[in-house]
């Protein structure tokens, strides 16, 4: 079975069982070993998938990495495991040590059964990079993640091809993370750089502080306007094509005109929320539904996973944001751009749906 076909069922199983898994051993047995089995490795063959692989560090003997995947009699991939309840941020040091003493190793994987961080030695040979070149969260999968995981399947594993693409993947992620951070909270250095291209006066601290909210808002509006332009163009093209097809199919059977009219302001609101949530969730999971009462923004196109509802009538504009209990909290706005003022609340609203 193709990885793309087997992954959805595997992820559903993870969602259902993760709350019952309380320690590292349970995580390895119930989540990590089945994952590598899905990638095509014989997890019961001690010549290919070796548990407690010895990776002695200097004079310290008996150091063992949780698993080593052996290809052509060489330990090519080292896997360090943690409980699914643990954050991986402070756990790469062990894998770093093991990688440096296992000269045949080309890849290190740090995982808690939900998140998989892939490392190699791009910066210095035989010395594991501090930054992973690929991070895959099974509960927030993207299509490109599946394509990268395919490269690690047993039948298609090509070390040279993975290493060749690893640098681009690594810096692609670093750049996107940096941009998302600057978009959310611009640094003084970034503000100073922008001002250097548009402002003729002295760029002192007072000027930087004065222009920070202006530049932040301008960036968000630019992204919003660009995305809105693209989606409006796509929707218009689709609507024209659909209307032409409906007329050709049945010119005498016109359906009653809908009272729902999705406005440009509502589409702008959708793209504003989408830009706010970039980096919080795979934005391809976001969708909107327009009703006669409100314009709803949802996760997975599911009404039970509503992030916010936007009302942009001529006499009243406000946004309802779902709280922790999915109750609406109202915030009045003057323009769609004011939605950015509630970025924190929108992110918190969305986070509760990420692992559902």
From TrEMBL:
The protein's name: Restriction endonuclease type I HsdR N-terminal domain-containing protein
Native source species: Aminicella lysinilytica
Alphabetized Pfam families for the sequence: HSDR_N
GO function terms (MF aspect): ATP binding; DNA binding; type I site-specific deoxyribonuclease activity
InterPro entries hit by this protein: Restrct_endonuc_type1_HsdR_N, UCP035009_HsdR_All3000-type
Top-level taxonomy: Bacteria, Bacillati, Bacillota, Clostridia, Peptostreptococcales
Restriction endonuclease type I HsdR N-terminal domain location: 23-127
GO BP term, example: DNA restriction-modification system
